């Protein structure tokens, strides 16, 4: 056999999954913009007390004479109300910064707790299978067949009012989505060979579950997480608007919008309008990022 | 086929029973039943009398049976605020809510399916991207805020449509519907559109995803190889495949529309069940709250049952598999 | 030579433009199909044979595109035809049978719907009753028992072999001049395979339909085809009458393929395997696609070998064709 220069046709440039993920994600300019906006919002939420033009909850500084001023007005102290003031004279922009903080905080916190609870339950159901699985999934199915707002209302009716009760209600509304998602992908992964290999090695169940199975179930979980967080924020705002959500000592964006309701008929739109825009931008950004994540992580749509 | 129905029926009954247990436990164990069921302004003698009457001094399982017995006879307590039977109050307002929810559902289908199919056929075209961007907006907009803005724009600024309340009604079978009058429609339009907004986005995304996936299937390629026209491929082959998930989801969403009408009814002061619930939550009118929850659970279970049966009619694989073929 | 050929493919090139590069799935493919002829298009996965079939019918999906060449069907170039005219030819004068019948028949539509629509798409004047009668006959033609009941069934109620027969029946409904069959028996049992092959051959003889049978299995094509084209790396490497190519293979790849088929005279001997793997279409080597695996490769192979026709009807693409001592091609 003559030795000639052989071209090995099977060597293609190596590309790690992370690299491909980042390049696929950044394919969408819109998603990247949304991500940037989201980072700005998180920044505002975290540093609200420091970057807010005024402190709207400092009763000494707030004056009723500054109330209901349109955007751009200047107060008696020379402070500009860029987005106007509400009925009690609080600067709307500052109120929105604080409100974002609360809305985002409650939404994310309930999301994270629900993620932990739901993931654990879902993994347990998938790993142990059999009657455990059937029972858990029955509960999940039944809960998911009721709309979130109804479940929330039932819980609030039973538990009463308060920040902690609202967070509990939000967690109880969301856990089922996480549980179902994780269980679904865990069931698929459970049958794969690397789990069999880990079992043969004699690793204990908890380790297999959390160190081997869970990381491979992450992609759909990430997508669900972003979308659910957006839902949680929206749900909390709705509940607060209806007056059954957060108490008025924790004014989230929903409450701000509710406060502006009564002034709408007289044409003072800004009190409800701007907090709504803030809420909208937050939710849209999360959804856009979540959408791109879903497209990038969905194997069925790979070209 | 009938085996399938019977099995689903039994499942539904089980769910209702469980929910009644949960509501019962919620009211009598988590909360204070004395507070829940007795008017807070009653005096001691009255309270003692009502406790005896309602059997609150009996053991818990007896109370539950008492509750169920009453519920099956249609007695779910008396409203504190109105003094009337809670059930009657809810049933009176039910047509308004159903009307709203149904109109919203129809709008969602009529606008959503065509837009979604167009977006799915040419996923990379400008029209598709615009539709998807619009749908994300619809999905993310908080319903109550949109409702407020709609009232601002159409009622206050433009003055085209009335801002709140329900229009003239027509009596059908003893129930009142505003569906059939022009004034009724002018009042119905904004709230129905508001409620529909959330679902239009969902329908668009469903239709688009379904269309996109269907177009990549081999049977579409084969249909082209047979020389079928694009319109036949879309309207018969693709449509029948995507209608299955669309109908399933929409059916389930109808219940969610009824639940979410709580918000729209509050914003537009629409006199339906939802507004009654919110008012009752504020007034602590517990019997009405309990009654509403029980009824809505029942509505949900029935809707799910109907959707499952419908689903099996559309997808022959489900029907035949269940019959043991 | 009598009538004009039913199909003439000339220098067809179909490329896929992906993010990872350009995959030259079909790279300068030419062959002819006469009336009533069965051509076997043979090659392994990734050789471009299926894409050739799709290119003929204009069913190449993006990111693929026919880049150049001509596909002359009874004299008309299909590649330049307006979309509506092409649509009218498909399923009517040119039909295609796909590999996996489970996926090609729409699972939520009944078989009769899917058959009747094929007829009505090309002749809307046919009544439903007539169309159903034709569908019934077509099912009978392919050997499906109880056709009336079968018509009202759904695809998933058939076995794999039956489904493929339905697909063949659909292809025959409008009595096409050419059928392109893309690995129609690959997904089926060997016994069913045999039956379908037999019936396909019978039909072609009886109706004078031309056929392009795409497969990776030489054995399938040996008993069925009149002529054979062997593809590798998107190009045709050898072509000719079936007996000629099978008895006197000239291209090293063809020889390798034939050598690796177990036969009576190799009993007890080690099975020959062509060393190496087929190249990725994204990364074809300079020159001949087969060099990396060819025992006769040398520097001359670095320039792309052209098709030569030593004898009319017999073609090879190789600078080192395998000739036994005293052997002449086409002898």
What do you see in this structure?
The complex is a heterotrimer of chains A (303), B (325) and C (331). In chain A, 69% of the residues lie in helices and 1% in strands. Chain A contains 10 helices and 2 strands, in the order ααββαααααααα. Chain A has a two-stranded antiparallel sheet. In chain A, a hairpin with a 5-residue loop joins β1 and β2. With 325 residues, chain B is an all-alpha fold. Helices cover 78% and strands 2% of the residues of chain B. Chain B has 13 helices and 2 strands, in the order αααααααββαααααα. A two-stranded antiparallel sheet of chain B has the order 1-2. In chain B, α9 (218-225) crosses α10 (230-268) and α10 packs antiparallel against α12 (286-314). The longest helix of chain B is centred in the C-terminal third of the chain and has 39 residues, at 230-268. Chain B starts with a helix and ends with a helix. Chain C is of the alpha/beta class. Chain C is built from 11 helices and 12 strands. In chain C, the strands form 2 sheets. An 8-stranded mixed beta sheet of chain C has the order 6-7-8-3-9-10-12-11, sandwiched between helices. The two termini of chain C are 20 Å apart. At the A-B interface, α5, α8, α9 and α10 of A face α1, α6, α7, α10 and α11 of B.
């Amino acid at each position: 056999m003559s030795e000639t220069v052989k071209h090995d046709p099977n060597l293609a440039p190596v590309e790690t999954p992370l690299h491909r993920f980042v390049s696929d994600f950044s394919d969408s300019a819109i998603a990247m913009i949304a991500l940037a906006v989201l980072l700005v919002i998180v920044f505002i939420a975290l540093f609200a007390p420091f970057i807010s033009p005024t402190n709207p909850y400092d009763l000494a500084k707030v004056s009723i004479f500054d109330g209901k001023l349109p955007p751009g007005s200047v107060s008696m102290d020379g402070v500009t109300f860029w987005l106007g003031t509400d009925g009690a004279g609080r600067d709307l922009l500052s109120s929105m910064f604080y409100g974002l903080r609360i809305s985002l905080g409650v939404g994310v916190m309930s999301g994270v707790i629900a993620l932990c609870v739901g993931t654990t339950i879902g993994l347990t159901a998938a790993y142990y299978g059999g009657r455990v699985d059937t029972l858990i999934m029955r509960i999940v199915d039944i809960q998911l067949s009721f709309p979130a707002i109804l479940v929330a209302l039932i819980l609030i009716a039973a538990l009463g009012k308060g920040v902690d009760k609202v967070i509990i209600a939000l967690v109880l509304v969301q856990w089922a989505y996480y549980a179902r998602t994780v269980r679904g992908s865990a069931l698929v992964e459970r049958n794969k060979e690397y789990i069999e290999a880990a079992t043969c090695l004699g690793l204990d169940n908890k380790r297999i579950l959390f160190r081997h199975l869970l990381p491979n179930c992450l992609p759909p979980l990430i997508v669900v997480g972003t979308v659910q967080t957006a839902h949680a924020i929206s749900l909390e705002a709705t509940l607060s608007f209806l007056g059954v959500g957060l108490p008025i000592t924790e004014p989230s964006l929903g409450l701000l919008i509710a406060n502006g309701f009564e002034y709408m008929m007289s044409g003072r739109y800004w009190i409800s309008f701007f907090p709504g825009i803030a809420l909208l931008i937050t939710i849209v950004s999360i959804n856009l990022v979540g959408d791109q994540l879903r497209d990038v992580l969905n194997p069925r749509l790979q070209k | 086929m009938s085996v399938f129905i019977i099995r689903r029926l039994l499942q539904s009954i089980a769910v209702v029973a469980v929910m009644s247990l949960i509501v019962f436990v919620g009211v009598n164990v988590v909360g204070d039943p004395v507070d829940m069921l007795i008017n807070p302004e009653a005096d001691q003698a009255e309270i003692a009398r009502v406790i005896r009457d309602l059997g609150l001094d009996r053991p818990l399982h007896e109370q539950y049976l008492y509750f169920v017995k009453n519920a099956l006879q249609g007695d779910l307590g008396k409203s504190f605020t109105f003094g009337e039977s809670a059930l009657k109050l809810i049933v009176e307002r039910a047509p308004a809510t159903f009307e709203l929810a149904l109109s919203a559902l129809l709008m969602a289908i009529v606008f959503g399916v065509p837009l979604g199919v167009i977006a799915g056929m040419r996923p990379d075209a400008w029209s598709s991207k615009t539709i998807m961007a619009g749908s994300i907006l619809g999905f993310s907009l908080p319903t109550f805020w949109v409702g407020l803005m709609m009232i601002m724009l159409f009622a206050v600024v433009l003055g085209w449509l009335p801002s709140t309340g329900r229009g003239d009604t027509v009596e059908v079978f003893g129930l009142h519907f505003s569906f059939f009058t022009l004034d009724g429609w002018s009042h119905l339009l904004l709230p129905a559109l508001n409620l529909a907004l959330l679902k239009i986005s969902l329908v668009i995304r469903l239709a688009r995803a379904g269309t996109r996936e269907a177009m990549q299937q081999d049977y579409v390629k084969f249909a082209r190889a047979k020389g079928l026209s694009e319109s036949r491929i879309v309207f018969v082959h693709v449509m029948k495949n995507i209608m299955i998930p669309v109908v399933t989801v929409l059916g389930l969403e109808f219940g969610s529309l009824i639940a979410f009408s709580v918000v729209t009814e509050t914003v537009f002061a629409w006199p339906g069940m939802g507004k009654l619930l919110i008012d009752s939550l504020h007034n602590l009118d517990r019997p009405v709250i309990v009654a509403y929850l029980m009824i809505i659970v029942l509505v949900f279970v029935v809707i799910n049952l109907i959707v499952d049966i419908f689903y099996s009619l559309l997808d022959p694989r489900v029907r035949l598999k269940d019959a043991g073929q | 030579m009598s009538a004009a050929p039913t199909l003439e493919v000339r220098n067809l090139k179909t490329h896929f433009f992906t993010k990872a590069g350009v995959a030259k799935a079909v790279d300068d493919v030419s062959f002819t199909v006469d009336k009533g002829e069965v051509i076997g298009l043979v090659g392994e996965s990734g050789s471009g044979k299926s894409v050739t079939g799709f290119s003929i019918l204009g069913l190449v999906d993006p990111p693929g595109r026919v880049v150049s060449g001509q596909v002359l069907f009874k004299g008309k170039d299909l590649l330049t035809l307006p979309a509506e005219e092409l649509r009218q030819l498909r399923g009517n004068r040119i039909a295609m049978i796909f590999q996996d019948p489970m996926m090609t028949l729409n699972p939520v539509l009944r078989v009769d719907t899917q058959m009747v629509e094929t007829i009505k798409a090309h002749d809307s004047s046919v009544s439903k009753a007539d169309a159903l009668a034709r569908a019934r006959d077509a099912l009978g033609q392919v050997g499906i028992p109880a056709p009336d009941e079968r018509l009202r069934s759904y695809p998933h109620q058939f076995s794999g072999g039956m489904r493929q027969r339905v697909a063949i029946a659909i292809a025959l409904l409008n009595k096409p001049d050419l059928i392109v069959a893309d690995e129609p028996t690959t997904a089926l049992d060997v016994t069913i395979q045999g039956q379908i092959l037999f019936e396909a051959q019978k039909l072609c003889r009886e109706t004078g339909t031309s056929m392009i049978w795409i497969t990776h299995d030489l054995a399938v094509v040996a008993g069925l085809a009149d002529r054979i084209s062997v593809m590798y790396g998107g190009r045709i490497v050898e072509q000719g009458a079936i007996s000629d190519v099978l008895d006197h293979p000239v291209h090293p790849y063809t020889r390798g393929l034939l050598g690796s088929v177990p036969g009576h005279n190799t009993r007890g001997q080690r099975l020959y395997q062509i060393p190496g793997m087929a190249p990725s279409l994204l990364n074809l080597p300079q020159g001949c696609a087969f060099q990396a695996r060819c025992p006769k490769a040398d520097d001359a192979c670095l320039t792309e070998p052209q098709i030569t026709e030593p004898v009319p009807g017999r073609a090879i693409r190789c600078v080192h064709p395998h000739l036994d001592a005293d052997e002449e091609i086409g002898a």
